[in-house]
Automatic annotation (TrEMBL):
Gene Ontology molecular function terms on file: metal ion binding; peptide deformylase activity
Name of the protein described by the UniProt record: Peptide deformylase
Superkingdom to which the source organism belongs: Eukaryota
Top-level enzyme category: hydrolase
PANTHER family in the record: PEPTIDE DEFORMYLASE, PEPTIDE DEFORMYLASE, MITOCHONDRIAL
BP GO annotations: translation
Biased composition (Basic residues): 221-233
Sequence segments annotated as region (Disordered): 211-233
Keywords: Hydrolase, Metal-binding, Protein biosynthesis
Purpose: Removes the formyl group from the N-terminal Met of newly synthesized proteins.
Any one of the GO CC terms: mitochondrion
Record carries keyword Disulfide bond: no
Catalytically driven reaction(s): N-terminal N-formyl-L-methionyl-[peptide] + H2O = N-terminal L-methionyl-[peptide] + formate
Organism annotation: Phytophthora pseudosyringae
Organism phylogeny: Eukaryota, Sar, Stramenopiles, Oomycota, Peronosporomycetes
Length: 233
């Protein structure tokens, strides 16, 4: 089942090589009164240097699946993802990237899935994030053509993760409390244990301090969080 997603964002209009927008939503999602409406954004939609810079950074960091312009201090509503991304991360083969400009989610499924995510901006860690399993999206490609498509599973997760970057949101802001693991902890886990932990649901986190009147002995202590696939984007 899908639900519609309303968006106040105004897309940067693409015409020729360069487009201009004074919309506050085109500057990192900043609202009225922030001064963003006074800062026009120039978006090069066929800029090979920018694309090469993003691709080079992906390859240097051995990230693989995607990177957003703000991660490289570029104030553009743009990210790169693997072209024709498979539903399963394990099926990734040849890495060919595509530009995604002015992306929007216009609908999403009511069903959601919990899985591990990592981020190039916070290297070395993984955390569980719950995201819609299926989304309807629209964006412009590197030639300014408007694209509308439905994404599911892994591609849907990557799109949501990268779009969050454009809106100033990190996966840490959406991560389940108590689920953060260092990569070494994650890689030491067996696949069966990871799936079992994912099915158990979010961990129950005890309070940091128990009121003196309720203390009857040692405070409860729970173990570490859960695991999924190792994703960096």
């Amino acid at each position: 089942m899908f639900v519609s997603v309303s968006s106040a964002a105004t897309s940067v209009q693409v015409g020729g090589r360069c487009a201009r927008s004074s919309s506050p939503e085109a500057v990192g999602g900043l609202g009225e009164g922030s001064g963003a409406d006074l800062l026009p954004v120039y978006l090069m939609v066929q800029e090979p240097v920018l694309t090469l810079k993003l691709v080079f950074e992906l390859q240097r960091l051995e990230a693989g699946v995607g990177i957003a312009a703000p991660q490289l201090a570029l104030n553009l509503r743009m990210f790169l993802t693997i072209k024709n991304m498979p539903d399963n991360e394990a099926d990734l083969d040849k890495l060919e990237y595509q530009q995604v400009l002015n992306p929007e989610i216009v609908g999403m499924s009511t069903s959601a899935k919990r899985d591990f995510e990592g981020c190039l901006s916070v290297p070395g860690y993984q955390g569980i994030v719950k995201r819609a399993e299926e989304i309807r999206v629209q964006y412009q490609d590197g030639e300014g053509r408007k694209i509308q498509e439905t994404l599911t599973d892994f591609p849907a997760r990557v799109f949501q993760h990268e779009l969050d970057h454009l809106n100033g949101v990190m996966y840490l802001d959406r991560m389940e409390n108590g689920s953060l693991l260092h990569n070494e902890e994650f890689e030491a886990m067996e696949w069966q244990d990871i799936q079992k932990l994912l099915l158990q649901g979010p961990p129950k986190i005890p309070p940091l301090m128990v009121p003196m009147s309720t203390q009857t002995g040692n405070s409860p202590h729970h173990s570490k969080g859960k695991g999924g696939r190792k994703n960096n984007y």
